[in-house]
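Subject — a protein and its fold
Fields — amino acid sequence, structure tokens
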Amino acid sequence: MRLVAVREDPLEPGEVVAAVSDAAAGGLAVFVGTVRDHDGGQDVQRLEYSAHPTAEARLAEVAAEVAEEFDVVAVAATHRVGVLEIGDVAVVSAVSAAHRDTAFAASRALIDRLKARVPIWKHQVFADGTDEWVDSP
């Protein structure tokens, strides 16, 4: 695990790619999640992400788990919090491995586990003035 962060500043995919780049890696898989303009048939105006104080530590646990489970060279993930507009980058994760199949599988596991287990909550604000919290307890 080379980079794990939960921050308010805009995310840079290049930072995450650089963190997992390595001469031992023959494959590097990256996921970049952005704010889209719709969800469930409604027009999205913006998102507001909030995180529990333990979110970064939980993200580190997930990244370490993926690194241990898969034969990877490196793992990195960043997630943004605060108000995000349409098109903003919300999450960037990356995995490098000796082979592409491992990189793809580990990358999928990383983003899926991040979404399921890291306490970061999404509040969607719709163009019609309504809002909803997504997958929050």
